Amino acid sequence: MHISRLEQYTITAMVLGFSALALAPDVMAAGVGNGSFTDACKKVTSFFANFETILRVASVSIVTIAVVFAGYQVAFAHRRLSDVAPVLIGGLLIGGAATIAGWFVGDWQAADHAGVANAC
């Protein structure tokens, strides 16, 4: 089987790329003494905390709008509850996004090389 020069270059580039990715944690861990990992961990944690706060504010608004819309439809447009159930269910699912995100990012901690959890 004959391999073209382009295929050889592609395979070489892929091997070098994967090797670089395999060594990336060691290279990044070299800056731990400077506090760079700790700073990055704090930035990521604060980003997700801010994102969770935004989701909570949006969820309250969305659930409120869904309930008001459904209440208006039932009270004044003489709709049945089964007619507005999709709106209520969708509003509750979208509104629950903040709580679901809190389950995932609630107790994040960084781990050192030994696998011991460290707070950022």
Range of helix content: over 70%
Main beta sheet: strand number and arrangement? Answer: 2 strands, antiparallel
Strand order of the largest sheet: 1-2
Shape assignment: elongated
Give the integer mean of the pLDDT values.
Answer: 79
Measured by DSSP, the beta-strand proportion falls in: under 5%
How many distinct beta strands? 2
Tally of separate helices: 4
C-alpha-based Rg, rounded: 25 Å
Low-confidence stretches: none
Beginning-to-end CA distance, first to last residue: 53 Å
Q: Structural class of the secondary structure composition?
A: mainly alpha
Order of H and E elements: HHHHEE
What does this structure look like?
The protein is mainly alpha-helical and 120 residues long. The protein has a domain at 36-118. It has helices at 5-29, 36-75, 81-95, 97-105, and strands at residues 110-111, 117-118. Strands 1-2 form a two-stranded antiparallel sheet. The longest helix is centred in the middle third of the chain and has 40 residues, at 36-75. The N and C termini lie far apart (53 Å). The mean pLDDT is 79.
What's this model, at a glance?
With 120 residues, this protein is mostly helical. Helices cover 74% and strands 3% of the residues.
List the helices and strands and how they pair.
Layout: H1 5-29, H2 36-75, H3 81-95, H4 97-105, E1 110-111, E2 117-118
Helix pairs in contact: 2-3, 2-4
What labels describe this entry?
single chain, 120 residues, mainly alpha, 74% helix, elongated
